[in-house]
Amino acid sequence: MLIKKGMALMRIKQLEYLEAVIETGSINEAAKRLYLTQPSLSSAIKDLEKEMGITILQRSNSGVRLTADGREFMNYAKQILDQVRLLDDRFKKQQPLHQSFAVSAQHYAFVVNAFVELIKEINSPSYKFTLRETETENIFNDLRTFKSELGVLYINNFNRRIISKLLTENGLEFTPLFTARPHVFLSRYNPLAKRHSISLADLTELPYLSFEQGENNSFYFSEEIQSTLSHKKEIKVSDRATIFNLMVGLNGYTISSGIISSKLNDDKIVAIPLELDDPITLGIVQHQHTITSQLGQEYIQLLKNHIRDYGFPIIGEDE
After folding, report:
1. Are 45 and 37 in contact (CB under 8 A)?
2. What Gene Ontology cellular-component terms does the record carry (predicted)?
3. CA dihedral 35, 37, 39, 40 (to 10 degrees)
4. Residue 168: Cβ within 10 Å count
């Protein structure tokens, strides 16, 4: 019979095994990473499921993914593993405690600004922070596989049904932060930059810039509204710096929230209201039933501060 200490150690190992399986999406790949045989890893996971009395993984020929019970279980498991690693760093390795935090988001300046402020404010000699400005589908994957604690994206009337469905399927919830009318982002030197507002017809001859969405390039995953419209000139890019360079170099444009940072863009880009009734609501995405970490809470507050600085009321607080 195993003593309690041995049982505790085995439980932690099982959680580490499960984490590797989720990160790789495959028991075979996780076994290679862990230097285990596939049958022994599979057996360890099944033992954990039996002990917990739930099915944690949904297995198929294409790999594995968490069940609804599995997602909730991993919320607690990840907190345990984080604490174990902190103990190891502090006492086994004799290293000072380090803080870790990760965010996955669509391409928004206020997300980056808040991230910078968070790092400036932490009081730790060691930390590991990650900001993933990424494709919309990757936000769901990062949160589902616990690569990130928080996500940031938008919902509007066009994508609401699909995004809501994906949130439910992945055990996630969306908390709205603010609602904005669409704006056109373009170079300060573009003749349209002097307008008080811009119509879609005004943009017909300009290159339309948008963020690519990978293999699953669904209209519903687009970071730009009116994604089903056809354009005479269209350029897809993968990062925010490139899209701003093309606005200046090619007089291109994109459509976004209206929040733009002069600190990040050297005052070369402006946001002009678009003459279109299609508001977007930006918000936080995170696991259902999860406990937001202290860093997560601080980051959300910094997001709200930056949003207020740009004149937008926080939904449910400042209305």
Report:
1. no
2. protein-DNA complex
3. -50
4. 12
Structure tokens at 307: 């949003």
* Spatial separation of the C-alpha atoms in residues 45 and 59, rounded to whole Å: 12
Strands 208-211 and 150-155: unpaired
pLDDT in tens, the chain (319 residues): 333 444 455 688 889 899 889 888 889 999 998 888 988 899 999 999 988 899 999 888 888 888 888 888 888 888 788 778 767 766 666 555 567 899 999 999 899 999 999 999 887 777 889 999 999 999 998 998 888 999 999 999 999 999 999 999 888 999 999 999 999 999 999 999 999 999 999 999 999 999 988 776 677 888 888 877 888 999 999 888 899 899 999 999 999 888 877 665 557 899 999 999 999 999 999 988 777 888 999 999 999 999 998 889 999 884 4
- Distance in angstroms (rounded) separating the CA atoms of residues 67 and 231: 41
First-to-final CA distance of the chain: 61
- CATH number, domain of 31, equals 1.10.10.10
Query: What single DSSP character describes residue 197?
Result: -
Q: Are 147 and 121 contained in the same domain?
A: yes
Which runs of consecutive H residues, i.e. helices, occur in the chain?
Answer: 4-24, 27-34, 38-52, 68-87, 109-121, 136-144, 160-169, 240-250, 262-265, 294-309
pTM value is: 0.74
User: Is 18 within a domain?
Assistant: yes
Task: Using DSSP, state whether 257 is helix, strand or coil.
Answer: coil
Q: Which three-class secondary structure state does DSSP give residue 53?
A: coil
- Sheet (strand 280-287) strand order: 126-133, 98-105, 150-155, 280-287, 172-180
Cβ-contact 310, 206 below 8 angstroms: no
Domain that holds residue 103: 99-172+285-310
Decide which of 92, 117, 133 is a domain's last residue: 92
Strand pairing report for 280-287 and 150-155: antiparallel
How far is C-alpha 178 from the geometric centre of its chain's CA atoms?
Answer: 17
